[in-house]
Amino acid sequence: HTIDVTSAFLQRNRMESEVYVKPPKEFAEPGKIWRLLRCLYGLCEAPRSWYERVLSELKKLKGIVSKYDNALFLWYNEEGVIDGILAVHVDDFVYCGTSSWLKFVVKNIIATFKISKSAQGCFAYLSLNIIQTRSSVFVDQYKYVEELKKVSLDTVRALQKDAKLNEKEKKELRRISGQLLWLTSNSRPDSAFDSCWVSNYGKEPTVKHLITANKAIDKVKKDQVRIAFPDLGNPKYW
Fold this sequence. Notes:
The protein is an alpha+beta fold. The chain has helices at 46-60, 99-112, 142-146, 155-158, 167-186, 192-199, 207-222, and strands at 2-5, 20-21, 34-35, 64-65, 72-76, 82-89, 92-97, 115-119, 122-125, 128-132, 136-140, 226-230.
């Protein structure tokens, strides 16, 4: 299951620090400024403040923070068996659990925060397309791959392989590098080598690096690859 919290940064507790802003023109009054009561998007403390609110609310519901990841919460029953799991990525929650856990925990989460959308079984989550069947859970990024764009190089520039990149080209190389790393870490381990090579361009990247980045995009678009998590049955028999 997944839920998306709307206007998440406005749903935190009252700010502790003092921050003043200039009001929008339609609300401005001569000689007056506004003091923020809640964090706005763009403030340095906004993400931390939002996380603290989420942490507080989930602990009230007896959630335990995973020792491996502060954005992963676990619930255990009286026998010490996991009842539910919830992962948080800013305002996107993804979770699974028993029917009793869903009724107790998720019902309270939905009552606590303003939710813009929810889905289960098959849904998109952080550019991931998740499909659940009776036997497996599949994860792909087909749409994400389709939207990847190469850097446009004219014939003359493409021949200048050892020429240093200008600032605009460097920005484009960083864009592709980040996109490939995100793709590799989630659903395309087959592109790990290309992703690693593109990201290690050093302080003075050249046109050669851009050409390699474009080729890497061509390669990931050539094949449709997805990851399957099959039902392995009872863990006692693994």
